[in-house]
Specification:
Elements (H helix, E strand, L loop, with lengths): L26 H6 L6 H18 L8 H31 L9 H4 L4 H21 L2 H8 L2 H13 L3 H9 L2 H10 L4 H22 L3 H7 L4 H5 L3 H24 L1 H5 L2 H13 L5 H9 L1 H17 L2
Helix pairs in contact: 2-3, 2-9, 2-10, 2-17, 3-5, 3-7, 6-9, 7-8, 8-10, 10-13, 10-16, 13-15, 15-17
Length: 309
């Protein structure tokens, strides 16, 4: 297949995505960046925004916060796209052997390896532009995530816990936002970061249920494979750790109201854990996507505190 031909929509894409209506030459590149799977953009941006809200709880938002929020969103879009492109470059041979990923642009031939490399560089350039707009200390903190991003695609080959590495990577924005707003990283920020790492471990374990059979055949490791039939109680314990750590962060900054405003987020995670089922991979994707709503609940709760301070 040449780059001008219309690629097949991947199995886990949002049905009827706007990407399918984009010009034929652009579709494969948009699919490389997962624009037809927007949940990941939310899950990368939300930790930044939640940390911003937490840092302002008790003192109110400042006039610069809207601009910072826009930078975090733009950076999340650029770097999530770049990260997915890099992941697909590294994993192209494995993806060709897995049913859910076989129609991605690189294994399907819709995009050449060289073109994917240029697309990766273009997205990194946008990310660099965002980086240069951040305060100095936040720039240095943001650069600290680069080794995590670069090594992530290799984790599924060497450990049963690539989801933990994803959590460390996806939630690095908490530390960037803390540095940008406070000028330093404090205990509440570290607790929030740890809590959201557990959140990612939970939701990405659920996501990995879709690939249990294929991963076993090709030798790819995941927390979902490691937990096996004990996945539901394992996810419940993981989410409980997330709830405790995030609530502790909220308590340190805002007292009991910080915990109360995190309650909807907590309840959302617990209902996910109750519905998670390794025997029902068709449910895994829909459960995973609801984590956008979970993150929005935490953001809304702590933003309310900041807005009324």
């Amino acid at each position: 297949m040449t780059e001008q031909q219309t690629p097949v929509s991947p199995a886990d894409a949002v049905p009827g995505s706007w990407v399918l209506r984009a010009p034929g030459w652009a579709r494969p590149f948009l699919q490389l960046s997962r624009y037809d799977r927007p949940a990941g953009f939310w899950l990368l941006a939300l930790p930044c925004l939640v940390a911003l809200a937490l840092s302002r709880a008790g003192q109110g938002f400042s006039t610069n916060d809207a601009g910072l929020a826009l930078l975090f969103i733009a950076g999340a879009v650029a770097m999530r796209g770049a990260g997915c492109t890099w992941n697909d470059i590294v994993d192209r041979k494995i993806d060709a052997r897995v049913a859910r990923t076989a129609q991605r642009p690189l294994p399907s031939g819709a995009v050449s390896l060289r073109s994917a490399g240029f697309w990766l560089l273009a997205q990194c350039a946008v990310g660099l532009g965002v980086l240069l707009c951040l305060p100095d200390i936040a720039r240095w903190v943001a650069l600290g995530s680069m080794p995590l991003v670069a090594i992530y695609p290799l984790m599924k080959r060497i450990t049963w816990w690539p989801q933990v590495w994803l959590g460390l990577t996806f939630n690095w924005g908490v530390l960037v936002a803390a540095a940008a707003t406070r000028g330093f990283i404090g205990l509440p920020d570290c607790l929030l970061y740890a809590g959201l790492v557990f959140w990612t471990l939970g939701y990405d374990t659920i996501y990995a249920v879709q690939d249990l059979e294929d991963d076993a055949l090709v030798g790819v490791r995941s927390s979902a494979r490691r937990f096996g039939s004990a996945l539901r109680p394992a996810v419940a314990m993981i989410y409980l750790c997330s709830i405790v750590l995030c609530s502790a962060a909220g308590y340190i900054v805002s007292g009991p109201i910080g915990v109360l405003m995190a309650l909807p987020f907590s309840l959302h995670l617990l209902q996910q854990a109750m519905r998670a089922d390794p025997a029902r991979p068709s449910r895994a994707l829909s459960l995973f996507r609801t984590n956008r709503d979970a993150g929005m609940l935490l953001l809304a709760g702590w933003a309310f505190i900041a807005a009324t301070s």
